[in-house]
Amino acid sequence: MTHALNIGQRIDGRYGELSPQEQRAADFILDHLSDLAVYNASELARLSGVSKATVSRLFRRLGFQDSAEVRDHARALRSHGSPIGGPGASAGTPSRLAAHADAEHDNLRRLLESLDDGRLDAASRLIVTAGTVVVIGMRNSYPLALHLREQLVQVRDRVRLAPQPGQSLAEDLAGLGPHDVVVLLGFRRRASGFGALVAAIQRRGIPLVLIADSSARRHADFATHWLECPIDSVSAFDSYATAMSLINLLVTGAMGANVRESRTRIAAITSVYEDLEELEVPW
User: Fold this and answer.
1) Going from the N-terminus, what domains does the chain have, and what CATH number goes with each?
2) What Cα–Cα distance (Å) separates residue 259 from each residue in 149, 255, 263?
3) What InterPro entries does the record tag this protein with (predicted)?
């Protein structure tokens, strides 16, 4: 059971059993989990103000052989998108904020460079010309899928979001074919049935736009268009800033590929807004 838990969960589960010195080291680890992949036992001991023997004893209590195994564990967690960092005392300091900004800029630069080959325009054209668009996102991809659907429905009709709360996916895939498109968002820590979903879409001949991070590359060969979003972060959690930027570009491209119809639809929606008084009147 121990090996199914990450190091933070192991500390939480055994914290009351630790000696005061071990608790001191454990507190430091919990506040610096995002840096754990680069610290050895000596560095952890110095930074937390305990002996190296205390750190080694703590690791053994938590089920690790040594600091090398802890570093490997931390790297594996980060690569799978597990939130292994804590807020820490320095989360809002200028150095932390600058590091966050640098990481965000690098992610966006890598995204834009990957779109130089025309795949973004091709995906936008496919989406705007399809009969029906089904946008699918599960787990942490669901809010992104919801936002994408909300933007797409401004420029074209017949855009559905799946799965609906409490529902399965079969109902939304049945009836789709080569003239429709599925836009599938699949960022890491995906549901276990993700591969089966991609395979089902391919078997039915439904064009697929796949939006995900690099961990989904093994599914990219089955997509009509593959749009990779870097989500690396210096904080505990993955960053979806590039995904939101991509959604902006994708929908803007769809609007540009069908300008007259898009503007007509936007005007019609605006008229309904006014009839229903749904939006706040600007100053």
Assistant:
1) 2-79 (1.10.10.10), 99-276 (3.40.50.10490)
2) 18, 5, 6
3) Homeodomain-like_sf, HTH_RpiR, RpiR-like, SIS_dom, SIS_dom_sf, WH-like_DNA-bd_sf
